[in-house]
């Protein structure tokens, strides 16, 4: 950027030199032609040797002046050459072609606006600032529907947040799926000076459903047409973006372009960079009417107040009705209708320079919009192929996109200095809770983790499941990190019912997971698995937060609280549904225990029945879970009784009991103070007991723990004395909280702990 500024300064200096040096020279000559206040003629006649005024000194002076003039002319010649070279390299130099000039600073049609567009240029260059107040709020509207589009919006928003220096107000026209995902995401993202408002896209369907549309965006691809009606009536202007946009500059520069609109200009658009509207892509290709190449609606500047006064709603409807009589349907959704309106009313458009929408679909002229990386403003992946599109510089664009795709969103939680943020109750409560903690406490980091707000992206992949109508459906609930991804396919093969998983990942790991899942036939064939990404933050693994996230987003009346390292027996899903009815779980407070076993072998011939499992148990191929390191955790299950049991039997709670259970979805959450390794499940089972849940062991159910390398947290527990001290402190505080909450009945937990 600095290099460009210096180049333009040289350009300016050269221009001034060419203008002023000759002028100064002629002034000097003219002044020198006066003698004693009288003009001295420099005509050839008077400068001959025989002239009475001729002297040796004046002859020498004249020769000196002539030499100086030749020097100046030579300097001017060199400067003109440099200027010519500078112009040929300058982004302001227009490079024509036979149809239309695609310059760096494409104008809006008339010469005055063209000059304004050139001045607009890269307004961040050479010290020029956008005509936007420091704390002025920039309004952005995006139509978003479904799981994939919700992921795309996140990347778009990251690119905007990365460059922005102004408060932002996003207006999201979203269906119920996108609203659930993005509302949770922004609520947990907690970015200062960013406001989000949602508008129900499903309510708008009736406004555009009468328009047949062949575009892959479906009915939602037409909703930009009704923004004047959808957005608040007091909102005067808005930038409208497609979800497949990536910003490479501050969005305030685009917002500043509104000040260049004149007369009846109400739409800011970039010319379409493909030949689509020229109608020559294939034989009998018949596009909608458009002005020249037409305009692309991936980036739109809308002057809403003027559009409403012009009766935009009536304007586009009449145009669409007229054209549909012959065209029958739209091919490019709202873009076709916008262009048909503009064809009839060209005065509506302010043509944006094409770097505000560099369109990367196949066979576009996008390469003529930029000559250097610094020229890029907005990249538009407007091909169904997205990142696989053909383009000379696609690797560069792909890398830029991937940078934001994998960028740590937590780093974008930065304050805008000098711009006060709106009061946020959640943020204020969080700050109050954190301020009450003692930073000198050796267990401060443990206590702080309880209040950490982790950015959460629900339903990262497509999810589609309707629970069984008989109200017996059960969802398997588990949590995992990147090092346990290999368990997903095996679990899906063992459990055919719905699954809710919370994954603790960084932004980059989330993309690795996405590629892994999309490359797996097993995972892609399952639409009843909800993947919820909880983004990494802090030094501990927030195991109970992850469990709570997975528990909260189930759609079935019951859930099986498992762990990712366990494979359920084949047929367990159907067995549990029958047990729910048999044990009347709907009307009783029961926790159904699935007995847990383990193997030390990475390759295991999984038992297909209880009899086969008992045989493997006797042979030493299987063991009861953690019998050799933590017997107390599952001893109350009473495995000796289970061997011969044919009916469910009840067991009593004991200290450190942590079985895997099936419960109703309204059971209490896990306690977030327990992070990493230790007491995370024990505390939950203790609370179930305090709430008088009855523990019932299922006689024909089982699950087997598969071997894996020790987790980082268990390694810390074993090697770090302070870790163990803090865990003991948290246990004691939890027990005290239980006593205060449940009264006399909870005293047994203190007694049991002391006796154990």
In words, what does this structure look like?
Strand 3, helix 4 and strand 4 (168-174) form a beta-alpha-beta unit. The longest helix has 34 residues, at 56-89. The chain is α/β, with parallel strands linked by helices. It has two domains: 138-412, Spore Coat Polysaccharide Biosynthesis Protein SpsA, Chain A, CATH 3.90.550.10; 456-749, Spore Coat Polysaccharide Biosynthesis Protein SpsA, Chain A. Helix 1 (2-32) packs antiparallel against helix 2. The chain is built from 25 helices and 25 strands. The protein is elongated, with a radius of gyration of 36 Å. Residues 1-6, 18-55, 83-107 and 109-127 have low confidence and may be disordered. It is 39% helix and 15% strand. The strands form five sheets. A nine-stranded mixed beta sheet has the order 13-16-15-14-17-23-19-24-22. Pathway: Protein modification; protein glycosylation. This is LARG1 glucuronyltransferase.
What is the CATH third-level topology name of the largest domain?
Answer: Spore Coat Polysaccharide Biosynthesis Protein SpsA, Chain A
Query: Could you describe the largest sheet, including whether it forms a barrel?
Result: 9 strands, mixed
Q: What's the helical proportion of residues?
A: 25-40%
How many distinct helices?
Answer: 25
Observed structural traits:
25 strands; multifunctional enzyme; elongated; 9-stranded mixed beta sheet; membrane; Spore Coat Polysaccharide Biosynthesis Protein SpsA, Chain A; 25 helices; Xyl/GlcA_transferase; glycoprotein
């Amino acid at each position: 950027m600095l290099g460009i500024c210096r180049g333009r300064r040289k350009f300016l200096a050269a221009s001034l030199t060419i203008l002023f040096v000759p002028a100064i020279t002629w002034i000097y000559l003219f002044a020198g032609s006066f003698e004693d206040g009288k003009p001295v003629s420099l005509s050839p006649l008077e400068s001959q040797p025989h002239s009475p005024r001729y002297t040796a000194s004046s002859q020498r002076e004249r020769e000196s002046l002539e030499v100086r003039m030749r020097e100046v002319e030579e300097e001017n010649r060199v400067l003109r050459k440099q200027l010519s070279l500078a112009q040929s390299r300058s982004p302001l130099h227009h490079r024509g072609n036979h149809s239309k000039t695609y310059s760096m600073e494409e104008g809006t049609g008339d010469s005055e606006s063209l000059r304004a567009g050139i001045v607009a240029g890269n307004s961040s260059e050479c010290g020029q600032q956008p005509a936007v107040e420091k704390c002025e709020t920039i309004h952005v509207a995006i139509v978003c529907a479904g799981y994939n589009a919700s992921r795309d919006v996140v990347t778009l928003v990251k690119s905007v947040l990365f460059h922005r220096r102004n408060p932002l107000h996003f207006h999201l026209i979203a269906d119920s799926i996108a609203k659930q995902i993005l509302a949770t995401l922004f609520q947990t993202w907690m970015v200062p000076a960013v406001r989000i408002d949602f508008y129900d896209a499903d309510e708008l369907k009736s406004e555009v459903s009468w328009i047949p549309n062949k575009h892959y965006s479906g009915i939602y691809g037409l909703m930009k047409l009704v923004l004047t009606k959808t957005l608040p009536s007091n909102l005067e202007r808005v930038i409208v973006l497609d979800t497949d946009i990536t910003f490479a500059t501050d969005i305030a520069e685009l917002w500043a372009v509104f000040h260049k609109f004149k007369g009846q200009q109400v739409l800011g658009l970039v010319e379409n960079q493909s030949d689509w509207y020229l109608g020559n892509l294939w034989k009998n290709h018949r596009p909608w009417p458009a002005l020249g190449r037409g305009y692309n609606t991936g980036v739109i500047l809308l002057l809403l107040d003027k559009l409403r006064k012009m009766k935009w709603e009536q304007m586009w409807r009449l145009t669409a009705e007229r054209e549909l009589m012959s065209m029958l349907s739209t091919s490019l959704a709202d873009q076709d209708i916008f262009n048909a309106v503009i064809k009839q009313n060209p005065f509506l458009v302010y043509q944006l320079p094409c770097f505000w929408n560099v369109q990367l679909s196949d066979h576009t002229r996008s390469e003529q919009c930029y000559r250097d990386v610094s020229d890029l403003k907005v990249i538009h992946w407007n091909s169904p192929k997205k990142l696989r599109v053909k383009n000379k510089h696609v690797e560069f664009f792909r890398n830029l996109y991937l940078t934001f795709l994998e960028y740590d969103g937590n780093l974008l939680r930065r304050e805008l200095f000098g711009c006060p943020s709106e009061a946020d109750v959640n943020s204020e409560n969080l700050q109050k809770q954190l301020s009450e903690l003692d930073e000198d406490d050796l267990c401060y980091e443990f206590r702080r983790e309880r209040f950490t707000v982790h950015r959460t992206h629900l339903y990262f992949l497509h999810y589609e499941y309707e629970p069984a109508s008989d109200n017996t459906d059960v969802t398997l609930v588990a949590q995992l990190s990147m090092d346990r991804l290999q368990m997903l396919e095996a679990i899906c093969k063992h459990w055919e019912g719905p699954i809710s998983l919370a994954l603790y990942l960084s932004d980059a790991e989330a993309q690795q997971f996405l590629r892994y899942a999309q490359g797996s036939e097993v995972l892609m064939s399952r639409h009843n698995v909800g993947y919820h990404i909880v983004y990494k933050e802090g030094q501990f693994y927030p195991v109970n937060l992850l469990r709570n996230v997975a528990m909260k987003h189930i759609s079935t009346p019951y859930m099986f609280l498992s762990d990712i390292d366990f494979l359920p027996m084949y047929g367990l899903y159907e067995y549990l549904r029958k047990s729910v009815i048999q044990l009347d779980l709907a009307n009783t407070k029961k926790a159904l225990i699935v007995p847990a076993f383990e193997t030390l072998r990475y390759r295991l011939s999984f038992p297909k029945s209880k009899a086969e499992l008992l045989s493997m148990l006797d042979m030493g191929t299987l063991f009861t879970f953690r019998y050799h390191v933590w017997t107390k955790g599952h001893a109350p299950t009473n495995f000796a009784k289970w061997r011969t049991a044919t009916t469910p039997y009840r067991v009593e709670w004991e200290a450190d009991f942590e079985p895997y259970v099936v419960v109703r979805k309204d059971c209490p959450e896990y306690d977030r103070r327990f992070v990493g390794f230790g007491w995370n499940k024990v505390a939950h089972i203790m609370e179930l007991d305090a709430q008088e849940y009855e523990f019932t062991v299922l006689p024909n159910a089982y699950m087997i723990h598969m071997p894996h390398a020790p987790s980082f947290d268990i390694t810390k527990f074993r090697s770090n004395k302070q870790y163990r001290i803090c865990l003991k402190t948290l246990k004691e505080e939890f027990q005290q909280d239980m006593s205060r909450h449940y009264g006399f009945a909870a005293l047994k937990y203190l007694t049991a702990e002391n006796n154990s």
